[in-house]
Amino acid sequence: MMPPTFASLRKALLALAVAAPAVLAAGAVLAPAAPALAEVPGQQRTQAPGFYRMAIGDFEITALFDGFIDRDRKYFVGAKSEDIIGLLDRMFLAERPEIQTAVNAYLVHTGTNLVLVDAGAAKSLGPTLGFIADNIRAAGYSPEQIDTVLMTHLHPDHANGLLRPDGSILFPNAEVRVAKAEFDFWLGGEAVAKAPAPLKPFFAMARAAVAPYEAAGKLKPYQPGDSLLPGVESVAAYGHTPGHSGYLFRSKEQSILLWGDTVHSHALQFARPEVVIEFDVDKDETIASRRRLLAEAAAQKLWVGGAHLPFPGIGHVRTEGDGYAWVPVEFGPIRSDR
Q: DSSP of 236-285, one letter per residue?
């Protein structure tokens, strides 16, 4: 077969050029119209439901996000201002004067009890908080199913979520347990008489939060060493408030310490445990408690859950130089084999 000549190629191209308009016109009639582009939807400006689950032995731990509050970094004292800014800058947090602070609570299903550790703020501190009840439901439970609420302390961002917006009990089938020293401080009368004026509303909110439970016989203070529930014990973490306490949950040789407000800023207080927040009632005792719990958590490789650590607030503590560092949990499936 002879290869095509230039003349034959030119003749073929001219034929195509003549036929193309007719072909395109026919195609315009026969081909289906191109589909119209879908309208771009509006952005979804909400976050995923705020719960995260993990297993500790046979216990199911569900972290619950109540929301966030912005804290002015001036509330943190105990180190030079340039050191605080440097630590925040290392964690990409120095651009704003406020530090976004999570408020977390923890729901623990032990197999025999459904236990809530802290209850969030409700809407007492603004619209960015108050989502504990919503996230309990999103996690597959209801407030009515909870039988025990363990309070780390009675600050409003932990206790005010005990109530519904109308002031009635949110957890109608639960006993509320709180350390006796904490109960006496907020409800005993002596401390409020001595408190400076800016702190007096905190006493009023603490009393209002627990009053319906006390009236129903469901508020039960405990002493150090008292039995709480199988696999659960209180851990003294005094200083932030006089009865501030954590709770250690143990199952099948695994443990998690839910330590309340032992750390308010992961960027500052792991590296510099001597940094305190102005809300600490006894700052020296706060520092001593923090150093002890950090050392124990690091040495024992404990799981830790913190009320003001970035959600879900669960992780480990490791030593780093003269201080410590936070190692957050990895998102993953619920596993009991590690």
A: E-TTSSTT-EEEEEEETTEEEEE-TTS-S-TTTTTT-TT-EETT-SSHHH
